[in-house]
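Table S5 (text form). Sequence records supplied for joint modeling of the two-component complex.
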Amino acid sequence: MQAFAQNLTQDLDRADRAASLKAADDSELVIRFLDGEERAFNELVERYNGRLLNFVYRTTGDRQRAEDLVQETFIRVYRHIHRFDTNRKFSTWIYTIASNLAKNELRNRSRNPLVLFQTIKKNWEADERPLEWEDNTFRPDDLFRKRHLKQLVDEAVTHLPDHHRTVFVLREMEGKTYEEIAEITGCNLGTVKSRLNRARNNFAQIIAPLLG
Amino acid sequence: MDCSTFLNGYSDFRDDRLEAGEMARFRAHLAGCAACARYHRVIDEGVALVREMPAPRPTDSFLPRLQHRIYTEDERRRRRRRLPGTLTPPALALVAVVGGFAILPVLGGEAEPLRLPAVVATAPGAASQSDMPSVFGSGPFFTPAPHVARPPMAGYESRPASSSAFYFDRTLPMAHRGLGQLVSD
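The corresponding structure-token record, covering 397 residues in total, follows.
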């Protein structure tokens, strides 16, 4: 009976701690991790892995590589977390690391051009597409049309120049402020503004024919 | 306001970063210009579609792989801590104690001369004589060579006259030590 009560107390304790980790903000999690509470780091990973994967994938266009880069981001965070200034925003810090890794990846790729299977597939699909859309008898239903449109819009994002795409993804998909984007990308506010404006302009030009 | 001004300042307008008066001017242009209105609509719809795109989910191996890498990272840190350049506090204390002992004789003046005791060993012959039959009969097992028979040095334990024992003369090199000094009773 006593053992049961002890186990129950431990379970409740654990549940309390898990709930308090969920409720804690990022800086608090960093402090708790530095104080030896290892679960706090798990919570940070849980909070950011999906978001970072989305960001890096949209920036690099390579799903598998994006996952590797997100892993590397967490390793760097783990390695240098003691240097993080808890008065600053953790999300900006982690996005800066991920953004730099993605930037390096794009730079390396442009130095050593590698034809990705994804790119081949994309081009192949692009070759096939006009036949499909030029067929006047073809009337896709709304759901199919929307799904297809999404795919085309997704491709439109990948066709933006690298530095425009990063800013566009951070603003439109991640909802970052101009100031945060400036910090993450290491550019000044004016550059962020002009890049975002150009990115939107390019994006509009690519998707305008699709949207009618 | 012309279209080029509208397009140049479009991001500030879209993200609500203009002052109220400027915002009103942009809205007025938007209401009167079909091209800019279309531009605004295309971006609105495109961005909405982009936001609806399902975010990729990490694969099942993502967390185990990360956990393994973190473990490796910890191991690397532990190894680095063990390097001589980064000694742990207990190791540093040990080095200090050993170092202190090493320099004590230098600081403490003249050290006392070290006196080594003589090594006395029982001759195997003496022990075995009683319980092992000698193939050479009852005579001594070994006859000492006359040139190595010498008196013990002063300060060393002297060999008892009637004992079967080796006696090592520490002043002689190994080749000349009394290896043949087995003396039988």
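Note: Chain A has a mean pLDDT of 82.
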